[in-house]
Design brief:
- This protein has 17 helices and ten strands.
- By secondary structure, it is of the alpha/beta class.
- It folds into four domains: 106 residues, no CATH class; 45 residues; 117 residues, Nucleotidyltransferase, domain 5, CATH 3.30.420.10; 125 residues.
- Strand 4 and strand 5 form a beta hairpin.
- The longest helix is centred in the middle third of the chain and has 23 residues.
- The protein is elongated, with a radius of gyration of 29 Å.
- The two termini are 44 Å apart.
- It binds zinc ion.
- Zinc ion (ZN) binds next to loops.
- Zinc ion binds next to loops.
């Protein structure tokens, strides 16, 4: 072992000196070596309170705590940290401030930071393995780190929001995420998707900020709409393309596909082709592999009704390209007439639904928010959920969503 001064210098535990040290090497070849280092506070350093940062004159007592640090010398490293507690006039009994250790933490700040950085990239169990920590401990470390790092979101100056729901745990329960679409920042995440579930956000935003809100982008979901109307008298409701496209996929394309498969009962091969085409019909055509694109082309050439709903799907998306409401309205009228004349019931139903909600669709002309932001957040949440298999902790899940979308300008 090198000299204590060297260890202290290399260890960089500011304000602390090294006491005894030791190393435990296991005989078993697969076991991990352990290093422990005892640390004492430098007595010449003024004692300040970890609660408020104020300098405190009198020490109340001494105590100690085992703390894990980053691995050193190829071994798991534990520190036995001796520190002082004081009676602070403002905070009561508090521990002294240590720059590299949070008041109640059992890991150093730099270890917590490394854990957090790795958690963004790989599943928790890999992080646990890497640092020789338990799964639960990694989760606890990361959660505490995120809580401190993210703090309360800044809500001032917000003029537009995007609202979206997502499923927790195999779709049994739902939650709502609220974002600022221009900066891609998550402002709020909460359980549920009903009016009362999202109300805390608007209460937090405050009356004045609610009145400044100009637009709320969302799926056609009544509870969100009603809640926005109630709190934000000046906000326009804007429906985003991503949600309307997926609704069209479910309620028109897939409905027609099932109907066509049923109609082809006597023609087994054709029926199988239609039945198996769910995925290539719902996917964005640009994302299809060349082979699948050929399959899609053949299917559409053979099936008139599927071809009609497919073409109308692609055309509907162009409605979101318009910047002038008059032009958008003319385009809409033409699309609507084609849909109604198609004699395809699910398509007609969908067109009538959109007609009722036309203001929310045309509102995107004035509030041209990039709707792919909502799609991006939606997809990313699914990735986080997959990586976080076994979370069972909504609060942690929500913190991770906020972590993934800190905003461009922050
Ligand atoms: Zn204090």
């Amino acid at each position: 072992m090198p000299g204590k001064e060297y260890i202290a210098e290399l260890g960089d535990w500011q304000g602390f000196a090294v006491g005894t040290t030791g190393r435990l090497d296991s005989d078993a070849s697969d076991a991990v070596s352990k290093v422990w280092i005892e640390l004492f506070p430098d007595r010449s350093r003024p004692v300040s309170c970890s609660g408020c940062g104020g300098v405190v004159e009198s020490v109340h007592d001494w105590t100690q705590r085992w703390v894990r640090d980053l691995p050193a010398w190829g071994a798991e490293t534990s520190l036995l940290v001796h520190f002082r507690r004081m009676k602070c006039a403002r905070c009561g009994t508090a521990m002294e401030e240590i720059p590299w250790l949070s008041p109640y933490a059992r890991v150093t700040k730099r270890l917590a930071q490394s854990v957090a950085r790795l958690c963004r990239e790989v599943p928790i169990r890999h992080v646990a393995e890497h640092f020789g920590l338990s799964w639960d401990r990694v989760k606890r470390i990361h959660k505490a780190y995120l809580k401190e790092e993210l703090g309360e979101p800044e809500l001032s100056g917000i003029t537009e929001i995007g609202m979206d729901e997502f499923a927790i745990q195999k779709g049994h329960r739902y939650a709502t995420v609220i974002i600022e679409p221009r900066t891609r920042r998550v402002l709020w995440v909460g359980r549920g998707r009903g009016r009362e579930d999202v109300r805390p956000f608007f209460e937090k935003l405050g009356k004045q900020a609610c009145e400044q809100l100009q637009a709320a982008v969302m799926d056609m979901w009544e509870p969100y709409e009603q809640e926005v109307r109630m709190h934000c008298p000046n906000a326009k409701i804007v429906y985003d393309l991503f949600h309307i496209k997926s609704k069209y996929g479910r309620e028109v394309v897939d409905r027609v596909r099932v109907d066509e498969a049923n109609r082809l009962k006597r023609d087994r091969p054709a029926r199988q082709v239609v039945k198996g085409a769910k995925w290539i019909l719902l996917r964005n055509e640009t994302n299809l592999r060349p082979n699948d694109r050929i399959r899609l082309r053949e299917l559409l050439a053979a099936n008139h009704r599927l071809a009609t709903v497919h073409v109308l799907k692609e055309d509907l998306a162009h409605l979101w390209d318009y910047k002038y409401e008059g032009a958008a309205r003319r385009f809409w009228k033409a699309w609507y007439d084609r849909a109604i004349r198609s004699r395809i019931e699910p398509l007609k139903r969908f067109a009538k639904l959109l007609k009722e909600r036309l203001p929310g669709i045309l509102a995107h002309c004035k509030h041209a928010l990039n709707t792919s932001v909502i799609e991006g957040v939606n997809n990313k949440i699914k990735v986080i959920k997959r990586m976080a298999y076994g979370f069972r902790d909504d609060e942690y899940f929500f913190l991770r969503i906020r972590e993934a979308f800190p905003g461009n300008c922050g």
